[in-house]
Amino acid sequence: MKIDIITIFPEIAEAPLRSSIMGRAVESGVVEFGFHNLRDFTSDKHRQVDDIPYGGGPGMVMKPEPFFEAVESLRTDESKVLLMTPQGSPFVQAKAVELAVVPHLIILCGHYEGVDHRVVEALVDEEISIGDYVLTNGTLAAAVIADAVVRLIPGVLGDERSSEEESFSGDGSRIEAPHYTRPAEFRGREVPPVLLSGHHAEIEKWRLQMSEQRTKENRPDLLD
Ligand code: JFH
């Protein structure tokens, strides 16, 4: 899979996607990232990417020309073009699963108040929001999408995950039971004895119960 990210701050997307598991995915060749500076697709001497909004209002709007130049130079028949925006459809795990089989993703990152709407009409396949809060720009959101998608490509994670992910707590319908590791007692706090008991049926029962309880507390929306 190839993922091209177009932004005026490529270094913001680069750092997380070159580290740790994402970095290893690149080394192993399952994914290739392209980090592109939108200003490299301008043709004026000031490399201007923004302008004042028609109709008035606060802030600046991203000019269409650099996005058209960028997408037209990068896209192929296999490309899907995404735009990060607070007005997009909510990014959920099912969307990550869908995007994980696309051979080429081009992710456009807005800045300022947003992008000229002709970019959306003519170039963009999907407008995506990573959640109902406002970031300063779309670049961190693009890195989030790329991370969530790439970890689903076979071979990126160790084999532990894949089967577990399809079962119960990995599917987003409930949250997981709490996890513990050694020591068995830490600053007066004990690991629940059932986890040390070796009774697998009892452990499963406890995890189910904790999962329900914590879902009620932290994510009541999942139970409706
Ligand atoms: C982005 C930005 C403020 C004004 C809500 C009401 C008024 C944009 C490009 C995605 C998610 C983003 C995101 C994505 C791209 C851009 C900053 C600030 C307003 C906000 C619009 C510029 C933000 N999931 N959160 N944020 N901004 N709007």
Explain this structure to me?
The protein is of the alpha/beta class. A hairpin with a 2-residue loop joins strand 8 and strand 9 (189-190). The protein contains 8 helices and 9 strands. The protein has helices at residues 10-17, 20-27, 64-74, 93-99, 117-123, 139-150, 160-166, 200-218, and strands spanning 2-7, 32-37, 50-51, 61-62, 79-90, 104-109, 126-129, 185-186, 189-190. The protein is 35% helix and 19% strand. It is elongated. The mean pLDDT is 95. It has a 5-stranded parallel beta sheet with strand order 2-1-6-5-7, sandwiched between helices. Strands 3-4 form a two-stranded antiparallel sheet. The protein has a two-stranded antiparallel ribbon with strand order 8-9. 21% of the residues are buried. Helix 1 packs parallel to helix 6 and helix 3 (64-74) runs parallel beside helix 5. The protein folds into 2 domains: 2-150, Alpha/beta knot; 173-223, tRNA(m1g37)methyltransferase, domain 2 (Trp Operon Repressor, Chain A, Orthogonal Bundle). The structure holds ligand JFH. Ligand JFH binds at residues 84-86, 110-114, 129-131, 133-138, 141.
Write the layout of secondary structure elements.
Layout: E1 2-7, H1 10-17, H2 20-27, E2 32-37, E3 50-51, E4 61-62, H3 64-74, E5 79-90, H4 93-99, E6 104-109, H5 117-123, E7 126-129, H6 139-150, H7 160-166, E8 185-186, E9 189-190, H8 200-218
Bound molecules: ligand JFH.
The site of ligand JFH has 18 residues, from strand 5.
In short:
With 224 residues, the protein is of the alpha/beta class.
